[in-house]
């Protein structure tokens, strides 16, 4: 029995050492890679509300003027909070809500594993319809109630492209516009990112590269803008024996989350600049602000924590910023 406990203790210790080493490696990348200066602004950020959630959540699944929607940690539940009645509603799913967005009175939920889209009524979270999107994809966005924008895979899953799915015709089409680096043979790893949508503005922000793309709502025009860190080179992608792509070592995530409000794009950055204080950079989330139309960098400031906990997700609406923590959302005016 003692021998078994000793082996378990050694295994746990080795796991902790490995986690620490990987964490230290990733932090060091973030600290060394930046060669730029931020324009820091003093922002008076005042907390005006705090909402305790009934369980831990993963991210914001969507927002409108009346409600906030969350995805559970396992992505198999949607939690709704009514800002007027201050009541919660939980919906258990028979799929995973990998990403979602709200249009009008509908919540569009996407599950790449099933290659499907699920449309829910935002009122009672009843399932309205379940639609097969016909292709492999990893990111999706409902542009309108009939058209879905996808970052989809080519036949052999070696490249990724921007495509659409038309609900009425049940057809998929490759877009004429594409990301500048979308045809790299890397399984989509280097170019991975996420869609953000607000008031007909579509932004695709790349996780590992210093780029964000503004896509016109008619899907006929795309502009690439560079984030202040300007990271363009991502290395270390290889092909495994089972024909899947993987990173040979931990790779820096430069841009974590994005929100759009009025004529500005807000991006949480993981890259330290020359002018950033090390103690502040490692303690808080860093928010960089860009002009939505020109992509010009404007300013930066730090986001408040919940104790020592950093925000997992955020949303900006006019002069309010919603910061999501594990089981709490805090609302600030700024």
Notes on the structure:
By secondary structure, the chain is mainly beta. It has a single domain, classed as Neuraminidase. Helices cover 11% and strands 46% of the residues. The strands form 7 sheets. Strands 1-26-25-24 form a 4-stranded antiparallel β-sheet, with no helix packed on it. A hairpin with a 4-residue loop joins strand 7 (106-111) and strand 8 (116-121). The longest helix is centred in the first third of the chain and has 32 residues, at 2-33. The chain is globular and about 50 Å long. Residues 19-28 have low confidence and may be disordered.
Write the SSE topology.
Layout (H helix, E strand, L loop, with lengths): L1 H32 L12 E7 L4 E7 L3 E6 L4 E6 L5 E5 L6 E5 L2 E6 L4 E6 L5 E6 L4 E8 L2 E7 L6 E7 L4 E4 L18 E6 L2 E6 L4 E5 L6 E5 L10 E3 L5 E3 L7 E7 L2 E6 L8 H6 L1 E7 L5 E7 L9 E5 L2 E6 L2 E6 L1
Antiparallel strand pairs: 1-26, 2-3, 3-4, 4-5, 6-7, 7-8, 8-9, 10-11, 11-12, 12-13, 14-15, 15-16, 16-17, 18-19, 20-21, 21-22, 22-23, 24-25, 25-26
């Amino acid at each position: 029995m003692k021998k078994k406990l000793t082996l378990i203790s050694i295994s746990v210790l080795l796991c902790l050492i490995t986690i620490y080493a990987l964490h230290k490696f990733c932090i060091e990348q973030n600290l060394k890679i930046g060669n730029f200066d931020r324009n820091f602004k003093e922002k008076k950020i005042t907390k005006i509300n705090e909402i305790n959630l009934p369980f831990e959540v993963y991210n914001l699944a969507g927002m409108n003027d009346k409600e906030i929607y969350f995805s559970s940690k396992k992505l198999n539940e949607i939690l709704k909070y009514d800002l007027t009645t201050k009541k919660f509603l939980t919906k258990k799913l028979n799929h995973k809500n990998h990403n979602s967005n709200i249009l009008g009175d509908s919540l569009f939920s996407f599950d790449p594993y099933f290659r499907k889209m699920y449309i829910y009524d935002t009122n009672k979270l009843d399932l309205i319809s379940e639609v097969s999107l016909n292709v492999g994809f990893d990111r999706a966005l409902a542009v309108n109630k009939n058209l879905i924008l996808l970052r989809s895979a080519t036949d052999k899953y070696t490249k990724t492209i921007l495509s659409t799915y038309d609900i009425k015709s049940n057809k998929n089409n490759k877009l004429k516009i594409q990301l500048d680096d979308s045809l790299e043979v890397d399984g989509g790893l280097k170019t991975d990112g996420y869609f953000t949508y607000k008031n007909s503005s579509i932004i695709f922000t790349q996780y590992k590269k210093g780029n964000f793309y503004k896509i016109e709502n008619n899907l006929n025009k795309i502009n690439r803008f560079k984030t202040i860190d300007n990271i363009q080179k991502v290395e270390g992608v290889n092909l495994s024996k089972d024909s899947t792509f993987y990173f040979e070592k931990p790779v820096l995530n430069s841009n974590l989350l994005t929100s759009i409000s009025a004529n500005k794009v807000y991006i949480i950055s993981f890259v330290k600049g020359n002018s950033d204080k090390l103690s502040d950079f490692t303690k808080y989330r860093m928010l960089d602000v860009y002009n939505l139309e020109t992509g010009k960098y404007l300013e930066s400031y730090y986001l408040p924590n919940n104790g020592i906990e950093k925000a997992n997700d955020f949303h900006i609406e006019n002069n309010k910023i919603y910061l999501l923590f594990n089981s709490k959302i805090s609302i600030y005016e700024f």
